[in-house]
């Protein structure tokens, strides 16, 4: 399903690649011309005009990815890039609730996802430990494939505790051991690209599941991370034109 009322918003997303325009958008009064009517709905990604422009600015600059952008790219990977993979890609909202909710609620909450029937499960992990408020400072990827858990963390050890907690919770539901292996994977060179690394690691894991490649050594270049930001912005604009 898709709704777009303001195609001109795509022009704003194009302009966000220019630093002087981003500064003008923040420092001037031009934002008063941007209303909050819904303009895009695709899979789990529903954004109003101001939100869409904010997402574009996040992708264009050196900023952490928000949970909506992470969910958007996971939906793209699952439904468009690798539709035949039969792998569940679980976004930040569901993962966070599953990690922190009361134990008796967990199985019923995850039941509609039919995780045990899937070939694998990929979850984006956040280190926030508060179930009642947003927060956290780091994203990583946890994979449940072949009866084992593998953790891909671009900041070594940054999310190990949260990932192990998630593995222990998922193990009885998936019928596998809760043992988790830390993969040898790419490391971020700055303090803001963890979310992009989690997504490109997910992309590479899906590619290797398809080809039979090594899942314990996954390396992507910084150039690919930068390209992924541009890819997400391009995909949002392409989907908005459908």
From TrEMBL:
- What Pfam families would the database entry show? Med31 (PF05669), Peptidase_C48 (PF02902)
Tell me the keywords, alphabetical order. Answer: Activator, Hydrolase, Nucleus, Protease, Thiol protease, Transcription, Transcription regulation
Q: Which GO terms describe its biological process?
A: protein deneddylation; proteolysis; regulation of DNA-templated transcription
Q: Which PROSITE patterns match?
A: ULP_PROTEASE (PS50600)
Q: Which GO terms describe its cellular component?
A: mediator complex
Highest taxon of the lineage: Eukaryota
User: Localized where?
Assistant: Nucleus
Q: Which GO terms describe its molecular function?
A: cysteine-type peptidase activity; deNEDDylase activity; transcription coregulator activity
Q: Where is the Ubiquitin-like protease family profile domain?
A: 43-205
Its function? Component of the Mediator complex, a coactivator involved in the regulated transcription of nearly all RNA polymerase II-dependent genes. Mediator functions as a bridge to convey information from gene-specific regulatory proteins to the basal RNA polymerase II transcription machinery. Mediator is recruited to promoters by direct interactions with regulatory proteins and serves as a scaffold for the assembly of a functional preinitiation complex with RNA polymerase II and the general transcription factors.
Spell out the family assignment given in the record's similarity comment.
Answer: Belongs to the peptidase C48 family.
| Quaternary structure and partners | Component of the Mediator complex.
Q: What name does UniProt use for this protein? A: Mediator of RNA polymerase II transcription subunit 31
Protein's organism? Amphibalanus amphitrite (Striped barnacle)
